[in-house]
Amino acid sequence: MSRNRGLPPLAIFLLLALSSACTVFGPGVGPASSGIVKVSESHDGQTVDVPQGGSLVVSLKSNPSTGYHWEVRDISDREVLGEVGREFRPGEAPPDMVGVPGLDIWTFKALGRGSAHLRMGYIPPGRVSEDAEQTFDIQVNVN
Known about the structure:
The chain is mainly beta and 143 residues long. The protein is 9% helix and 43% strand.
């Protein structure tokens, strides 16, 4: 009977965890192998690297039932970064519960090489972008 000389499960897990951690470069967030870079509030003020043709997915906590909403305040270079779409995903709650907070998920496309500053704001009901009560700003490098 031969012995299995493969890697033990713990070693495989550690290798996978380490390879996942290696997608973070320096102070910013680096591109995942799929070309999709995901960021959240914890990345506010940071720099992210997105491969040309890849996607940037921004997930921000939100509760549209209160009238508050996230909006793009500015993309400094729309030849580098373009807005693709947005969706709201409610958090877990009983099926008949209304007003459940969740995530606003924005998708952007890395169009051309260069840098663009993405500025977003959480806007109170009946107010304009300049009245944002919370902001989210990141520098996006497309290479």
